[in-house]
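We treat protein structure as text, and this decision shapes the records that our systems exchange. Such a record has a labelled line for the sequence and another for the backbone structure tokens. The record that follows is passed on verbatim for readers who wish to inspect the format:
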Amino acid sequence: MTSIKQLLVVCLFSACFFSCKDNSKTDVAEHTKTEYAKFVDAMRAEGISTGNILVYEDGEIIFKSSNGLRSINPTDSLDLDSQFRLASVSKQFTGMAIMKLKEAGKLDYDQKVNTILTDFPYENITVRQLLHHTSGLTDYERLMAENYVVEDSTKQYILGNDEVLKEYYRIAPELDFQPGEQWEYSNTGYLLLASIVETISGQHLRTFLKEQVFDPIGMKNTGVYNYQIESDANMPNRVFGYSKSLNQKDVISNDYHMLNAVRGDGGIYSTLDDLYKWNMALANHTIIPKAYLDEAWVTGKTNDGENTGYGFGWFLDYDPGEPRVVSHSGGWVGFATFLHNEVDDKNGYIILTNDSAEHFGSIYNNMKRLSAGETYQMPRKSVYKEMAKRIFEKDIDEAISFYNTKKTDTINYRVSESDINQLGYLLLNEDKLDAATEIFKLNMNEHPKSANVYDSYGDALLMQGDSIQALANFKKCYEMDNSLDYAKDKAEALETALKN
């Protein structure tokens, strides 16, 4: 009888223990969810878009929110099903496509690229070096900007991999460094990886990923988008990038770029729920065997053995023996994105924004803080944006007066030489030459020991036609810092012009 009583007590104790434990876990999750909601609500109250956010712990979603504009013409709000351009977050999917080819026995990571892409003009670059950003290939965006000539300047071109590689192979630029010698983030490398997938599989990357990755794990709202400028009836939840005008009132489109059809380094659109499915498929090894992911999440190395901290499309943030954390950010036109995946603990978060990274840094930092159990911090206001608002609403005197009253309030306002310098050039772009000149002069007076402020002031003076004073400022800039060759070049060119 005593034994039965003892057993009953043990059972009751156990039931209470596990019930209390579950309730405690639920309470913590609810508290955490509340803190995320407070942060988003506080940002919304200040008129700040936080885009779409998802947080999960122990594999379970604990928070989702949607706050911002999906499009500005017509004006439409984001919702939880909105499909964002992922930008460089796309690279991990390209890495997975290569891994799927490896799994099928169709390529080797150490295979030379020119054995697959026969027009590839470099001899000793491997697939692994493309994955790890150690190839030495120069940036295709810069090459296209400097060399590609449009036939019709009134037309908006949309170029993809074929057009870019045709130009790249024609020019065959020198490598930035010998393969494996350095780590340098390379969009070119991932464009080429996409072309490798297409060459070996005989399928467009869009089709390959749909069949091999997206459909198997239920990512029904994800794909390599065939970009078009206008709204697309086949993609009604597509998000458009935008930015705030300098006057801090109007919004303008920031969605189009000539290279918007390039795939491999970007080009994928997706949703919060699909990206959660992706992170969980990785954590649970349901998309590819664990051995392939283990290799993908080992840091690349340079030829001298230095760790790069980058795997096959992921940044790696862990030491050997510690729980693995893989992540990636993305930024292109109006989009700024981040995918954080604690693959061993099954925790993570997703950030998708489309307002030209207006407050992305603050959102990201607060997601880190909240996930670590800390309290959120509201972003400081930008002095230069507040000044710009006053210039457009009233005049430059009002803006400078505001600056003088707020420049020491570093708790509530963000003040820096570079921000004020940026304001000056933005005003030049708006044809507000007098205001820009006064802003540069203000920056020069505030930072008299900085060489660059004299160069900027010189630019404004030159545009106003004061060549003599512009020359004096260019010279002073270079005298203060002889590493600033741009000031020297401006001074020499201006002196030559004045003599003629």
Remarks:
- The CA atoms of residues 226 and 281 lie 26 Å apart.
- Confidence is low (pLDDT under 50) at residues 1-21.
- The radius of gyration is 27 Å.
